[in-house]
């Protein structure tokens, strides 16, 4: 779906008029293509107090083919920066926040187009000292505010590292690379926790899914089709699932990516078994399942009948849980292997609620509750469970929203535009990477820092 306003104010005469009138001009976001460099300009890397993760971050930046320069209060930047990474894990006193400001402000000022700010902090829930906990929580406020001030497609995000995950380049690499790269084009204003875990890094971090089998539900169109394509690009064999009525579109997607089409209604009683059977035909076990299929049946809560209520909960929540039960049974051939990944698609409606969507919000908030609990339960099997919560994404679903409501949905975020289905796909693929072993039980928003539920 096209965003006519963005096109108008970014071209020729429209650009001149918009600039004169001071109208918002959404930036054209840099998006990932195979072989693209991590950053278009150097990354400034700095450390507050005696943090140990800045050095690790610097190493990751350099190993990824980007240039790194030191960020200090005295640094004068010769040209534009592609990113700023600040290790604030050791910030413990309110005075340390002044050091953070002094390092960060000149570097943020020097950021070029599609610039990235990534702050590294210590998980506040793990801290006993009150001032240190307050200071670390303060990082979230700083990051969110910078995200709202950045222009030209810039994003700001925060990685909260557990104490035993700090200074560990293997745990940090996948999350940091994702947030620095254009794969995170529509992820801004978000904190993400990284916990200690065993990490097996892929040989080629740009194609981490070579040799893996990935199931994507609801893959015939929209976000699901985009997710399937991202996994295929990154090397996976994708089993694309959708209802029989969408069979033709499903076959087109599966053919395009050299994957397998599986016509299946995920609410069927034997859905889990049929997915496992399809996996078993080509692999020992499943590496990743992405629960993307979802429906809306909007109505004001007071007018919602049992059918509207139940059908949305059945597709968006119950079906996922039933399928996972089968795939997590170690005796099932074609089930999820230990070290495998589960990623679900939630929604910002599940965070902020939405008029006419109590059933949908119940299902999507339910998904978030599910991944938090299940992620915890499956840590001993090294299986990670996460969700993404997309905001306004340009799809057939959102093209049906009345014009004025749609325009509001598109603009009330820091990037002043809707996201593309591929932005959700990139984020899901990041969460299930081998290198993302330290990220589990979390919900990552893909919403351009939307005000909804903020
Ligand atoms: P869509 O309607 O374009 O695609 C959903 C796909 O799921 C369709 O191909 C449909 O046939 C399939 N599906 C529905 N019920 C199924 C079932 N019982 N069994 C198997 N397949 C089934 O929607 P979309 O916009 O691509 O959304 C994908 C996911 O993202 C959904 O979970 C949705 O709730 C979520 N989401 C979308 C947005 C957005 O802005 N578009 C925002 C937040 C969350």
From TrEMBL:
Name of the protein: 3-oxoacyl-[acyl-carrier protein] reductase
Task: Please state every residue range assigned to the domain named Ketoreductase.
Answer: 212-396
SMART domains reported in the protein's UniProt record: PKS_KR
Cited PANTHER family: 3-OXOACYL-[ACYL-CARRIER-PROTEIN] REDUCTASE [NADH], SHORT-CHAIN DEHYDROGENASES/REDUCTASES FAMILY MEMBER
Q: Which family does it belong to?
A: Belongs to the short-chain dehydrogenases/reductases (SDR) family.
A Pfam family of this chain? adh_short_C2
SUPFAM superfamilies documented for this protein: NAD(P)-binding Rossmann-fold domains
NCBIfam families assigned to the protein according to its UniProt record, in alphabetical order: PRK08261.1
* GO terms, molecular function: oxidoreductase activity, acting on the CH-OH group of donors, NAD or NADP as acceptor
């Amino acid at each position: 779906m096209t965003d006519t306003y963005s096109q108008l104010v970014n071209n020729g005469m429209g650009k001149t008029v918009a600039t004169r009138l001071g109208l918002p001009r959404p930036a054209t976001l840099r998006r990932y293509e195979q072989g693209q460099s991590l950053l278009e300009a150097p990354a400034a890397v700095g450390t507050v107090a005696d943090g140990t993760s800045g050095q690790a971050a610097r190493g990751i930046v350099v190993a990824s083919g980007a240039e790194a320069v030191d960020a200090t209060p005295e640094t004068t930047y010769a040209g534009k920066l592609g990113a700023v990474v600040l290790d604030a894990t050791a910030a413990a006193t309110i005075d340390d926040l002044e050091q953070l400001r002094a390092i960060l402000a000149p570097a943020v000022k020097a950021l070029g187009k599609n610039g990235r700010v990534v702050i590294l902090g210590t998980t506040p829930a793990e801290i006993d000292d009150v001032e240190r906990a307050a200071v670390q929580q303060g990082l979230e406020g700083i990051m969110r505010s910078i995200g709202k001030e950045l222009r030209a497609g810039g994003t700001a995000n925060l990685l909260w590292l557990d104490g035993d995950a700090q200074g560990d380049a293997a745990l940090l690499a996948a999350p940091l690379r994702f947030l620095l790269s254009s794969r995170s084009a529509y992820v801004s204003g978000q904190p993400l926790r990284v916990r200690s875990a065993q990490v097996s890094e892929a040989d080629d971090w740009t194609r981490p899914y070579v040799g893996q089998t990935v199931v994507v539900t609801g893959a015939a169109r929209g976000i699901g089709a985009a997710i399937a394509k991202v996994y295929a690009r990154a090397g996976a064999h994708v089993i694309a699932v959708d209802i029989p009525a969408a069979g033709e579109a499903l076959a087109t997607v599966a053919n395009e990516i050299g994957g397998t089409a599986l016509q299946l209604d995920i609410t069927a009683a034997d859905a889990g078994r049929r997915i496992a059977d399809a996996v078993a035909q080509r692999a020992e076990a499943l590496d990743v399942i992405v629960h993307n299929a979802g429906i809306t049946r909007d109505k004001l809560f007071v007018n919602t009948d049992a059918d509207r209520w139940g059908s949305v909960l059945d597709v968006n929540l119950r079906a996922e849980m039933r399928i996972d039960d089968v795939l997590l049974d170690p005796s099932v051939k074609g089930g999820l292997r230990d070290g495998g990944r589960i990623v679900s698609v939630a929604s910002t409606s599940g965070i902020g609620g939405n008029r006419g969507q109590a059933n949908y919000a119940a299902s999507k908030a339910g998904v978030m509750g599910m991944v938090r609990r299940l992620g915890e339960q499956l840590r001993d099997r090294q299986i990670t469970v996460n969700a993404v919560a997309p905001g306004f994404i340009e799809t057939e679903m959102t093209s049906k929203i009345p014009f004025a409501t749609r325009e509001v949905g598109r603009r009330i975020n820091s990037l002043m535009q809707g996201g593309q289905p591929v932005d959700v796909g990139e984020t899901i693929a990041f969460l299930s990477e081998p290198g993302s072993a330290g990220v589990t039980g979390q919900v990552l928003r893909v919403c351009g820092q939307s005000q909804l539920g903020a």
